[in-house]
């Protein structure tokens, strides 16, 4: 498998990346870990005459935790997420989700920025970031802007990011309470048949608020406000969980593929979401 | 046709320089330019791990890295871990515990296991299985691979204790 030829660039700052993106427009693309992009290039599903490797670009790495404000640089790998003790304490759902992505080799290379920018409905981080109400920082020729994860995804591989913009970091406010990421896959290293991210806060014996998002059950990640609302002000008992699952199932739109027919996927989605809610509640 | 790139890498401690198109996959540069045929091409689709090498301290599937990307990197392949006269502990234990049958997956298995034990010198069986999940074997059923890695860990830790 030999990808189409390309010119290779390795700029050292964002300005250099943006200049190349402006110069070559549609013909240029950035590469982070390459573990979504290279397979596509090998299959010639992506042809990129000008490939801009981000590995040497300053300022794209690092995890900073300032009280409950968390900022994760785009080039942070899944392995970095897993290894970061401070992050595991502040927002353990990130490690939980990262451990369910691909396999060790892929996690050393795959980055948070690549995972959320890619726009593949199979990626796990987009749904997680919607659940956490994360903001994506984009830098382009006209400066910097932030877009909420919940507004970022338009269709498969179509996002709010323009061709000249680079995603530099992901940030969110860690919430008190419990959270969980549950995923059903056919084998380790597989994308989700269904996955769910749940975050909820507890007041005494009732749930004060909940946020629920699902992965690979539509052409975009699905954040379901109705599912979250179904848990709020309830003791998260069986009937509340069922109401939340029913609400989430009304918001997803899975298609049949080699992971199964639609009916099966909806069934799995319900099972996985139920597990995630119970696990998050037990931790709240 | 884009220009060839001047690639400089350190492989198994040796500096190497050659010209290559940046799109060349690292596995082919290693096998065909540097004659390091230990890392194998299994699936060529980032799934099997037979091509695993260590790049700048990370276990990497070298079928999923462009040689341009690897420019400047420090790389270790199975050839850098042991030799027929001086087997690596993992090579010894794989032999002893029948951690291989056809041997096709073995260079990737051992290169990955080496990194795993570096990061976690005393893994549980479950941690070995999880840490080796990016490497597929069609022959052994994994049982003896796991045994071999646990045996290597025990041996390396024993040697460490003896030295202390
Ligand atoms: C065998 C295998 C199994 C996998 N399983 C899973 C899985 O279960 N779950 C999962 O979520 N992922 C999975 N992945 C994908 C993996 O996590 C990818 O690494 C990740 O999706 C993309 O990250 P990357 O850094 O490799 O991005 P790249 O492949 O480098 O880039 C992906 C896309 O994002 C763009 N991009 C990258 N960085 C930026 C940036 N900073 N700004 C703007 N655009 C950017 C690129 O232009 C490209 O279009 C798997 C991959 C493999 C090979
Ligand atoms: S040949 Fe690289 S993962 Fe199979
Ligand atoms: S020993 Fe044959 S593939 Fe593993």
TrEMBL record, chain A:
Keyword RNA-binding among record annotations: no
Keywords noted in UniProt: FAD, Flavoprotein, Oxidoreductase
Pfam families named among the record's database cross-references: CO_deh_flav_C, FAD_binding_5
Domain FAD-binding PCMH-type: 1-177
UniProt-recorded Gene Ontology molecular function terms: FAD binding; oxidoreductase activity
InterPro entries on file: CO_DH_flav_C, Diverse_Substr_Oxidored, FAD-bd_PCMH, Mopterin_DH_FAD-bd
PANTHER family, sorted: XANTHINE DEHYDROGENASE SUBUNIT C-RELATED
Protein name: Xanthine dehydrogenase family protein subunit M
Species of origin: Roseobacter insulae
Lineage, opening ranks: Bacteria, Pseudomonadati, Pseudomonadota, Alphaproteobacteria, Rhodobacterales
UniProtKB/TrEMBL annotation, chain B:
InterPro entries, alphabetized: 2Fe-2S-bd, 2Fe-2S_ferredoxin-type, Diverse_Oxidoreductases
UniProt keyword DNA-binding present: no
Transmembrane region(s): none
Pfam families on file: Fer2, Fer2_2
Gene Ontology MF terms: 2 iron, 2 sulfur cluster binding; metal ion binding; oxidoreductase activity
Name of the molecule in the record: (2Fe-2S)-binding protein
Keywords: 2Fe-2S, Iron, Iron-sulfur, Metal-binding, Oxidoreductase
2Fe-2S ferredoxin-type domain location: 5-81
PANTHER family registered for this protein in UniProt: OXIDOREDUCTASE WITH IRON-SULFUR SUBUNIT (PTHR44379:SF5)
UniProt superkingdom: Bacteria
Organism this protein belongs to: Roseobacter insulae
């Amino acid at each position: 498998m030999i990808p189409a030829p390309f010119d290779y660039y390795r700029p050292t700052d964002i300005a250099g990346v943006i200049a190349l993106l402006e110069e070559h427009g549609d013909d240029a693309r950035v590469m982070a870990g390459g573990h979504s992009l290279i397979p596509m290039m090998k299959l010639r599903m992506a042809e990129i005459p000008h490939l801009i490797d981000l590995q040497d670009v300053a300022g794209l790495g690092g995890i900073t935790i300032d009280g409950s404000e968390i900022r994760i640089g785009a080039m942070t790998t899944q392995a970095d997420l897993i290894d970061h003790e401070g992050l595991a304490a502040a927002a353990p759902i990130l490690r939980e989700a990262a451990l369910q992505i691909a396999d060790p080799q892929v996690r050393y290379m795959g980055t948070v920025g690549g995972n959320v920018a890619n726009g593949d409905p199979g990626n796990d981080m987009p749904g997680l970031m919607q659940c956490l109400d994360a903001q994506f920082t984009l830098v382009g020729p006209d400066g910097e802007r932030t877009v909420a994860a919940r507004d970022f995804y338009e269709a498969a591989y179509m996002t709010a990011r323009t061709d000249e913009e680079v995603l530099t970091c992901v940030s969110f406010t860690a919430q008190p309470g419990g959270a969980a990421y549950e995923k059903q896959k056919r084998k380790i290293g597989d994308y989700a048949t269904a996955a769910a991210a749940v975050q909820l806060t507890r007041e005494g014996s009732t749930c004060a608020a909940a946020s629920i998002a699902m992965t690979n059950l539509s052409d975009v990640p699905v954040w379901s406000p109705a599912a979250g609302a179904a848990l709020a002000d309830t003791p998260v008992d069986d009937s509340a969980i069922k109401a939340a699952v029913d609400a989430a199932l009304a918001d997803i739109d899975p298609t049949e593929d080699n992971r199964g027919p639609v009916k099966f996927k909806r069934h799995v989605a319900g099972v996985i979401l139920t597990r995630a809610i119970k696990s998050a509640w037990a931790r709240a | 046709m884009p220009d060839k790139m001047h690639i400089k890498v350190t492989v198994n401690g040796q500096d190497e320089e050659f010209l290559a198109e940046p799109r060349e996959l690292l596995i082919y540069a290693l096998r065909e330019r540097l004659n390091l045929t230990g890392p194998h091409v299994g699936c060529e689709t980032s799934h099997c791990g037979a091509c695993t090498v260590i790049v700048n301290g990370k276990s990497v599937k070298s079928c999923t890295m462009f040689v341009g990307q690897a420019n400047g990197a420090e790389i270790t392949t199975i050839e850098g871990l042991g030799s027929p006269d001086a087997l690596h502990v993992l090579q010894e234990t794989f032999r002893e515990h029948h951690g291989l049958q056809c041997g096709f997956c073995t260079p990737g298995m051992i290169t990955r296991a080496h990194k795993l034990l570096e990061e976690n010198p005393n893994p549980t069986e479950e941690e070995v299985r999880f840490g080796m999940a990016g490497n597929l074997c069609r022959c052994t059923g994994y049982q003896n691979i796991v045994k071999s890695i646990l045996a290597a860990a025990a041996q390396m830790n024993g040697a460490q204790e003896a030295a202390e």
